[in-house]
Design goal:
The chain is of the alpha/beta class. It has five helices and five strands; from the N terminus they run E-E-E-H-E-H-E-H-H-H. The protein is 50% helix and 23% strand.
């Protein structure tokens, strides 16, 4: 099963693609979709959607794992994150890919074993899971962690 992990963000949306066969995980690819902060919001959202659809068309994932919104004190930033996340959900569903949503603490607990792990701990575990993988940046690494979570938590749905 091919799984697409998405770490949504208006400025940078991380993505990671893994396969899950039996109990083996394999890194396929990862990257980041960047938008230009000087462009109109609608254009930035379309950039996210179009790039995600291209990634889906290339890798043909069976499911997508998308990070849920975390609590944020900045309401404007939360709304922008929600809009980027909506584009991720729309892009996956419109391509026939079932999206599953996971809270950040669930992702950390799945990958590290502790729900309040920091980014370095998550990246360390990812480097143990995928020793040959090179993470494009922290957003791409987060997306791979989300994909791993989808592999383990959504898998019962497809067995």
């Amino acid at each position: 099963m091919i799984i697409l992990g998405i770490d949504p963000g208006l400025q940078r949306t991380g993505w990671g693609v893994i396969s899950f066969v039996g109990n083996r995980l394999k890194h396929i690819d990862n990257g980041v979709i960047k938008t230009d902060s000087q462009e109109a919001l609608a254009k930035r959202l379309v950039t996210i959607e179009e790039n995600l659809k291209n990634i889906i068309d290339i890798f043909k994932p069976k499911i997508a794992a998308v990070e849920q919104i975390f609590s944020n004190k900045d309401a404007v930033a939360t709304i922008k994150l929600a809009q980027a996340r909506a584009m991720a959900l729309f892009a996956t569903q419109s391509r026939g890919v079932q999206p599953f949503e996971y809270a950040p603490n669930t992702v950390k607990k799945t990958v590290v074993g502790q729900g309040h792990a920091d980014k370095k701990q998550v990246q360390h575990m990812l480097s143990m899971l995928f020793p040959a993988a090179k993470f494009k940046n922290a957003d791409a690494a987060d997306a791979l962690a989300i994909a791993v979570t989808g592999a383990y938590l959504a898998r019962p749905v497809f067995i």
